[in-house]
Write a structure and sequence with these properties.
The protein is mainly α. Helix content is about 90%, strand content about 0%.
Length: about 70
């Protein structure tokens, strides 16, 4: 038969694990912030690539014309 001490420790461990798992639930404000950050970084990368493309266009056209 299960002893009282064992039963108390099992219940306590179950409660601690349950609380630990419950604390890691979804947090919409974190997800919204993360999505906003990803969009901002993607926009910066897109602008940088467009600038690079504009800067390299004359050299690429010259290389294509010389080939």
């Amino acid at each position: 038969m299960i002893g009282t001490r064992t039963l108390i420790s099992v219940v306590a461990a179950t409660v601690v694990v349950g609380m630990g798992l419950g604390a890691g639930g979804p947090r919409p404000e974190v997800e919204i912030g993360a999505r906003r950050l990803v969009i901002e970084r993607a926009d910066r990368a897109d602008q940088a690539l467009a600038g690079l493309q504009r800067a390299l266009a004359p050299a690429l056209d010259a290389a294509r014309g010389g080939a």
